[in-house]
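pasting for ref
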Amino acid sequence: MNAERHEFRAPQEAAGQRADRFLADAIGSLSRSRVKALIVAGHASRDGHALKEPAEAIRVGAVYALEIPPAIPALPEAQDIPLSILHEDADLIVLDKPAGLVVHPAPGNQDGTLVNALLAHAGDELSGIGGEKRPGIVHRLDKDTSGVMVAAKTELALRRLSESFADRDLERHYLALCWGLPEAIEGEINAPIGRHPADRKRMAVVERGGKAAITRYKVLRSWGTACALVSCRLLTGRTHQIRVHMTHIGHPLVGDPVYLRRTPAAARSLDAPVRDALLAFPRQALHAASLGFRHPINGQALHFESPPPEDMAGLLSLLDGNAE
């Protein structure tokens, strides 16, 4: 199904009007908020150029166009995507998520997600558990973060696992390869996280309006002052928490496409081939290494571990070779 396209030349009487209001009134069947969302998502243009600001004042005589994407099916499609399953029973699935796999459908990733894979694997067992868009999903890992995840197969398991995550009645440990060596070998980062004031696609430590966020870390290995392998334990579960907190203390993660803004000074002490490999790493070097929780139905203590994936393990080997 093709996108529905609307095009209008702005008349004199529209001068100074907001672009989203003008388009909503001209189309007649869409609310201003819906038009605003479409503009922000990149579906509008003025004289053939992208229209980025919903509040932009209308220019008389300019041609404004809006494309309405075809409707997305309410239910995600089951897709046969291989899963690395660590444990499965009638109530839950524990898996080792690879980097690059999105957890649930969202704008820009409507299929090919973990949810699509789970629906194919579990079939009708999972359908509708916890909502149509995110059936069975208890918690998320970022697309390019690898490691251990748990998904529920029943409503009761989902509710109890969600309560465990909310009450912090579980253990989550991550391995993070960061630039530089933290001054304290271990410590606690207690700093609230909210939307970055200047870039809504990023998170940041904020003084007002953020949510409480606590990360405990411990340096496991270091390579001079160039890099450190850090174990991070989450006491809260905020978006990009480890990435934001480590950046906040001056040690962004290797490969982080969002929070690593410049070449770190710490990289200078590495041999050129090793430095180049770390700077070219295409994702944040972050891995959910272990997850421990009580079974939501029988109360059994469960613990699962996952070694660093091949790409991250390769970086560690390169660093070891650099130190020899």
